[in-house]
Write a structure and sequence with these properties.
Aspartate Aminotransferase, domain 2; Aspartate Aminotransferase, domain 1; 2 domains; three-stranded antiparallel sheet; about 15% strand; EC 2.6.1.52; transferase; aminotransferase; pyridoxal phosphate
């Protein structure tokens, strides 16, 4: 039986990447060392990180006035690091609240300065993204923070907010590299690696040069962008194996045709599920406004919640793993990141149709 894993994260990695890592596990390129056993100061690891950086810069078309940092502490570490490094400009920051992760980011930032909630859809259980015309941006924010893809709720921005000269900061943990973006529209992009990049434990930050070096005096040294930019991400020992695996994922992405090719596949995969949810006669439904549905995390519910347990048990038996929604959201969630092949989505669709037929 072919297994398809719909975990929201840590998520499935491309099979060829795991196979290459397995082949190189004990002896990397004849060096006599595993990547896990190499000094991060040695030429072997330097070549690994240099190649990963160059490939990511090419894949995302990252302009030369942006630094790419490989950090630790996860995306939630950046909930602290972003305000610690950026809020000092005016002491204030704007936060767009579209769900679980943006709420947490906003709460953490409020520990370091004045936070303005620009908009929120909490009153309707975060079932849509508030229209830009409703946003109350402040005049003197150091930055505007938003979450382009809400992993728990299953919402995704299909547009990039135009916030003028104020740096735009995005938590792209769950949709980075899944669609083409113009990096120059952002002041800072961050992402935990564990969905579209590699294993957990690695955190990616892409930050414009002029935003580096302005941290609050209380900033812990391991969260100070300048320290890491100056040290080529190696102020302390980085997540070496995580960077190596991320590098293999970047190579795999390039071989697939890059981000544009990946985006086309992601549109196809998510459409398969959303079209069915619209057309299935109400047995399943999406709680999210049609225009704001995520391509990465397809959240859906069964009309009869009493069938949830049977759906999960039978889907697991059919090799379709980890479809349970986040504990605060309930229902189901099929996370279909870059490494999920179209066949996985087709298998899920067949199962859903069959289950509906038997229980409808
Ligand atoms: N932000 C988003 C959008 C996420 O999906 C997640 C994790 O799933 C996080 C933040 C938290 O990431 P971490 O566990 O790396 O701190």
């Amino acid at each position: 039986m072919t297994i398809f894993n719909f975990s929201a994260g840590p998520a499935v990695l491309p099979r060829p990447v795991l196979e290459q890592a397995q082949a190189e596990l004990i002896d990397w390129h004849g060096s006599g060392m595993s990547v896990m056993e190499m000094s991060h100061r040695g030429p072997e690891f330097q070549s690994i990180i240099d190649e990963a950086l160059a490939d990511l810069r090419e894949l995302m078309n990252i302009p030369s006035n942006y630094q790419i940092l490989f950090l630790q502490g996860g995306a939630q570490g950046q909930f602290s690091a972003v305000p610690l490094n950026l809020i000092g400009a005016t002491g204030k920051a704007d936060y767009v609240n579209t769900g679980h992760w943006s709420t947490l980011a906003m709460k953490e930032a409020a520990r370091f300065g004045q936070v303005n909630e620009v908009c929120s859809s909490a009153d309707s259980r975060f079932d849509h993204i508030p229209a830009f015309s409703e946003w109350k941006l402040s005049k003197d924010a150091s930055y505007v923070h938003y979450t382009p893809n809400e992993t728990v709720g299953g919402l995704e921005f299909q547009w990039v907010p135009e916030v003028g000269d104020v740096p735009l900061v995005a938590d792209m943990s769950s949709n980075i590299l899944s669609r083409e973006i113009d990096v120059s529209k952002f002041g800072l992009i961050y992402a935990g690696a564990q969905k579209n990049i590699g294993p957990s434990g690695l955190t990616l930050v892409i930050v414009r040069d002029d935003l580096i070096g302005k941290s609050l005096p209380i900033t812990p040294v391991t969260y100070d962008y300048k320290k890491y930019a100056d040290a080529g991400s190696m102020y302390n020992t980085p997540s070496t194996y995580g960077i190596y695996l991320a590098g293999l994922v970047f190579k795999w992405l390039k071989a697939q045709g890059g981000v544009a090719a990946m985006e086309a596949i992601n549109v196809e995969k998510s459409n398969l599920l959303y079209h069915y949810l619209n057309d299935c006669g109400g047995f399943y439904y999406s709680p999210i406004a049609e225009a704001d549905r995520s391509r990465m995390n397809v959240v859906f519910r069964l009309k009869d919640e009493a069938l949830d347990a049977a759906f999960l048990k039978e889907s697991k038996a059919a090799g379709l793993l980890q479809l349970k929604g986040h504990k605060i959201a309930g229902g189901m969630r099929a996370s279909i990141y870059n490494a999920m092949p179209v066949e996985g989505v087709q298998a899920l669709l067949s199962f859903m149709k069959d289950f509906a037929q038997r229980n409808g």
